[in-house]
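Page 42, continued from yesterday. The earlier attempt failed because a stray header line got pasted into the input along with the sequence. Redoing it now with the clean sequence only.
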Amino acid sequence: MSDTSLKLRLGEAVKVAMRAKDSARLGTLRLAQAAIQQKEVDERRELSDAEVVAILEKQVKQRRESAAAFEQAGRADTAAQERAEIEVLQEFLPRGADPAEIAAVIEAALAELAAQGASGPSAMGKAMALVKPRLAGRADMAEVSKTLAARLKG
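This time it went through. Structure tokens are written below.
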């Protein structure tokens, strides 16, 4: 990340979107800010960048699910709007891990589990516990989970 906090970068992006009169981008950024502020009010403390990233990831995940639901319902225009919001939010997330890096992390976790004597589908929870901190914010954890499950079966 940069020297400035993620919350400050979001605030600056809101100002830029307001000046540019980009209402779609502005709405997405304000929703993200509201979610962050709500969490801070609930917990009565300032959130760290890692916690802000977790909130943004959750919002991206929600929008992916909504876009898929809209696609199935034949509402391509609304699905496209959800995808545009995903793009805005992803600007504030860390650089995504490439497929080779994801595969390497999965292999390392599987090797670590094998050393502990755990294998097969029953080790899925332990494997995800090892993989998630290494890829959090940098990979779609649903896809990582599918890949990991396939590797544990095979």
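Notes: The chain has two domains: 6-90, 99-153.
Reminder to self: strip header lines before submitting.
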